[in-house]
Amino acid sequence: MAEVATVRRSRITPEREAELYAAVLDLLREVGYDALTMDAVAARTRSSKATLYRQWGGKAELVVRAMRAQKPGVTSDIDTGSLRGDLHGLISQDDCVMEENAALMRALAMAVHMNEDLRRAFKDLLVEPEVEEFQGIVRRAIERGEVRADNPALAYMVHMLVGAFATRTLIDERPPTREFLISYIDAVVLPALGVSPR
Asked: Are the C-beta atoms of residues 58 and 5 closer than 8 Å to each other?
């Protein structure tokens, strides 16, 4: 089993890194994960393949880091003073960006199950950091007395939120939108936790 490469620091500027990530995500949308190659990324970004491998180790890590980099901020930085405010604060991307992200997630869904390197990078670099950040929001809600620590729905909050995002297109044939996700939080997530949506 391949190890996820450790974080590397190089002379690549943050601006150049952002350009590379944008190109990777564009290619991913165009051809899908399986057909995406490091050669194609190198050509699209006018980089050497050796530089790409030295910086990111391989395609799986590069793709997942590109996805992580497009996040608008760190979830643990959200602290509005209420669980409802914090959960609404998670939905900060505009509808076009959310639609693009949903398309990327659909493109990667099968590849994650078929490719061990991608699955591991996805879990280590995207899923686990997201869950850890999200737990900070939950801890604050418990400390404020908004949610009981023994509420069984706490174990399913991430599943509920990701599920709503991921299945909107499948079930309703419509992309996830900010309005939809906020109404879902108020109608489903908060009541499950015993929190008033108002």
From this structure: yes
